[in-house]
Amino acid sequence: MSALVSRTLMTILVLTALAAPVSADGPADLIIKNALVLTMDASGTVHENGVVVVRGDTLAAVGDAGLLGRFQAESVIDAGGDIVMPGMINLHNHIPMVAFRGLGENGVENRLFKFFFPLEKQMLSRDLIRIASRHGAMEMALAGVTLVADMYYHEDEVARGVAEVGIRGVLGETVIGFPVVDAAEPWGGLAYAERFIEEWKGHPLITPAVAPHAPYTVPPEWLLRSKALAERQGVPLLLHMAEFAHERRLIKDGVGEFPEGKSVVRYLEDIGFLCDALLAAHVIYVDEEDMAILKRRGVGVSHNPKANSRGATGMSPAWEMFHQDLDIGLGTDGPMGSNQMDIVNVLSYAASVARLRGQDGTRFTPYEVVSMATMGGARALDMEDEIGSLEVGKKADIVMVETHTPNMQPLYDPYAALVFSAYPENVRTTIVNGEVVVQDRILRKVDLAAHELEWQALTKRVAEFAKSLE
Ligand SMILES: [Zn+2]
User: Fold this and answer.
1) Is residue 21's pLDDT more than 70?
2) How far is CA 272 from CA 277, 293, 383, in A?
């Protein structure tokens, strides 16, 4: 009931916002001019020599140079012909694990038990999680990520780190059946999630969420309790889903409590878990019927082709899901499974993996891949009315990508340049919620010297402990 009421109120607010005042001419806060504007709106509108006008946290106007006569702002950025596009959305991460990035990389067998679990058991603390989250958010902001979805522990500390940098976070507190750093009791994550949601709901950048780990680690009772919490609070529900071949086998073969003969998706459907609020990560082991179910239920999908390649977990039918109009966007997964956390690197993987899987070099146009990284991510989070494209009335989440260094030239097709030629370093400026978070590759909101001190101390401690694991 309360979710319904708040959704209705939200609709009224959005409609009011769209009705007039935001597009009125006159004073604004920030104008970007002389830009190649890729709006990523429904018709793929592009403005050469384009202009974007920001008022407060909102896009007041998007169009051609004619707008310059209608709006004034103290802050004007001359894009010099560079690309201006919606912020990129990273739909799947475990940001704090950046503290352990690069450990156990040399073909270690059973890396999960030899490195991940001992490191987490010994090293995790509120401080580590906050500092590492800040670090990860810095890396993502510099690369043009304006929203990251995360699943970890102490998500309130993740929220602090992410908010400090100034990007958005949809942050899911993990629910799992063994004692972890922030919950001594099995399933204690659920109560933690509720407190976290109460504390952070309504924050302009942070959307708290609940994240049961996966169908093979969380039984129906706790999956459904997590869903009930998400419904009661009107927040997203995050889950790893159909990621592994062994997960599919376990469920299909009816091992333990699982009923025999069902796919992962059908099992989740039959227990009543699938819903619009769900964002599912990976979604590799699915067939046509599964995809139809996911579409009917409005489940969002995070496609993580770089992590899936690196870990050899499988090639997702992302191209098929995209063309069946599922809500699918891109993610990296955590920095121990996909060391870089930017989306620029994921763009080419998305195209390449789909082409390899289909043995078809025409799969995924560059435009389609960029749309997954922007509107696709927004739709997967049910945030498409607020973010994902540069349209009047939406939040001002904007990225500028420079086009003059050799790797970005020639610029015959900006989408092809973004997907197949760009490096994350080509991102020049990142604006989130109307605030300049990165300008000309400099982070604007973080005390870099103070962060560096904390980061050095933290990684020194991790390095010392890691020696004992080799
Ligand atoms: Zn993951």
Assistant:
1) no
2) 13, 12, 23
